[in-house]
Input
Amino acid sequence: MAVVLNREKNKVLLLQRDEEPGKGLWAFPGGHVERGHDLFETIKNEVKEETGLSVEVHEIISTFSSPEDGLIQLIYEAIADNEEVIVNIESKKGCFFYFDDIPWNKLAFPSTEKLLRLYTDKNK
Output
């Protein structure tokens, strides 16, 4: 999963999901890393596939685990080359939001809100 920022680092990319779970709600781009694949290349490829954007992957921001789902999330900061988002069929649309304009009541997952709050508090 990636927190994709614009070059100025004052906006964050969220995708409005067009699939369940969370259809119609906003989330980060992300995907699964297949065994034997490079983590950083997977992040770049997933973001490109979901948004049309090229990104430079930076530092790890946080980790989350969900034992009941057998899931471990590694969240990295990534910087987009531009803000022209072209979504695939998994999303209705993608937007870069100023941190003050994040649709807090329309986020798809608790982990999305938790990470956004962690990131915005850290970078105030």
Q: What stands out?
A: The chain has one domain: 2-122.
